[in-house]
Amino acid sequence: MRKALLTTIFALTAVINTVVPAHAIRGGVEAPAPYPFSGSLQRPDSPRVDGHTCGVTLVAPSWAVTAGHCTKNNPSGAQVGRPKNWTVRLGTTDAGSGGEVIAVERFVTYSNYPVHEGDIGLLKLEKPAKTKPVALPGVRPAEGTRTRILGWGMTCDRRAPECYPRKLREADTVIQPVQACDGIHADRELCIGALDGSVAATNMDSGGPGLVRDGDRWVMAGIVSGSGGDDRPVMYTDVHHFTGWINDVVTGKINPPDTPVPNLEGAASIGPCSASVVKTDRTRLSDHALLLTNGHCVPERPAPGQTLRDVAIEIPVTIGDRQGYLQAKAHTTHLVHATMSGTDTALYRLGQTYAQLHAKSVKIFKLAGRSAKPGEQVDIISSGNGNRFKCTIDAVVPHLREEGYTQDNAYRYDPECKPSHGGSGSPIVLRDGSTVVGVHSTGNDNGEQCTANNPCEVAADGTVTVRQGARYGQQITHLAACARTPKPGRPQQPEAAPRGCA
């Protein structure tokens, strides 16, 4: 299976697969001089201090090209849109300094889903760059053509500062026969790199250029797209195949409308899960804020029958604005309460107060004092899915059993309600847009009975029912007591009581 060479930034972008690299531009060296037309797409949600996410290349004074999965990797997965605080840094060997920094006004992705119908996207810059754009190819380069590849890809297999190089790297390699890359689209992609993968692009090199010489100038032949593994060359989008589309967008002949974006205000992410900042009627602005998600999202899951309380733990949290772009960063200090028995909920205390988050215009939800009723309409606001699902509570299930855990009085949604993986921990919100009556938890993917990702319903008389495709959430009225008693610093206390704080 091909894998996109972009480190996943949002929990909502689980559709983008990643490959673990061995070296940045494997087989390469630090570039001795900058390439004026080449640079880095930088975003505030990057895991890197320098903000790098993908490579970019200037193709017109106000337009840069990158991989389509780099532009599609936005909070809602929009094909066309106006990003918040995206910039490109051009003409430098240092991803963190130098060169020319220009804000991105708009992105245009060639195809919606899958992006591999054409893994290419364009970035419209707020002002023309001072440097000269790269030349576009007049023909598709032949197999065996010498090619130079560039990038700031990861240098080791950990998502840690020491694995993110600041210096641009380059390597010389060749265009291979298309059959050397498994899964390639031969009509619109090139296979570039050593046959054994010893010289190739790696993770976070996505969008970077493959350059060929035409006399005394560089021509952009390809854009890093995806790889089949470290022992393979890498698939590049063939720029020549898309020169007509590039020119049409740059000249305004094609001007697609922005993709409609659902209201994602307040959708938060913690690790691979969704979450939300919540309060009660007794909450004060000076209180440290609380974050709601699933018990199964806790790094060390509670065992069946166990409830975890007041565990010191620090995890980064991001909270989005209406379009899902970063509104604020936060971090947890304590796991106040977590269980997967009787329910599947977790409540964290953040290092930030409600007043501090309010000052950043963060959406704060209110914990309901009641449960939702069958037939009641709700929204599931998911950072992990980049969507706001309009749903109806179909039923309250007496018992939901999955992988040795049992939850009581779980919500089952209507069949059209389909939050998916990455949506775990999303708040279930009443149509007032502010009141949380539950948290999305799980769904039956494959029709199996009571296995992981395949929960089964257990009636009061013990009858087991499997509903493939059904999705479920958990009630949260029991959490009000947790929110009233914030006492950090106590040691972890495993407890047998399944409902936790109530």
Description:
The protein has 4 helices and 31 strands. It has 2 domains: 3-9 and 18-251, Thrombin, subunit H; 268-484, Beta Barrel (Thrombin, subunit H). 5% of the residues lie in helices and 38% in strands. It is mainly beta and 502 residues long. A hairpin with a 5-residue loop joins strand 29 (456-458) and strand 30. The strands form 3 sheets. It has a 16-stranded mixed sheet that branches.
Query: What form results from the Cα inertia axes?
Result: elongated
* Strand proportion: 35-45%
Q: What is the CA–CA distance across the termini?
A: 47 Å
- Helix content range of the residues, please? under 10%
By CATH's scheme, which homologous superfamily of the largest domain applies?
Trypsin-like serine proteases
Brief summary:
The protein is built from 4 helices and 31 strands.
List strands and helices in order, with pairings.
Blueprint: E1 3-4, E2 29-30, E3 38-42, E4 52-60, E5 63-66, H1 68-72, E6 80-81, E7 87-90, E8 100-109, E9 121-125, E10 146-151, E11 169-176, E12 189-192, E13 209-214, E14 217-227, E15 234-238, H2 243-251, E16 268-270, E17 273-279, E18 288-293, E19 307-312, E20 316-320, E21 326-339, E22 345-353, H3 354-359, E23 365-367, E24 377-382, E25 387-402, E26 405-413, E27 427-430, E28 435-443, E29 456-458, E30 464-465, E31 471-475, H4 480-484
Parallel strand pairs: 17-23, 23-28
Antiparallel strand pairs: 1-14, 2-11, 3-4, 3-7, 4-5, 5-9, 6-8, 7-8, 8-9, 10-11, 10-13, 11-12, 12-15, 13-14, 14-15, 16-17, 16-20, 17-18, 18-22, 19-21, 20-21, 21-22, 24-25, 24-27, 25-26, 25-29, 26-31, 27-28, 28-31, 29-30
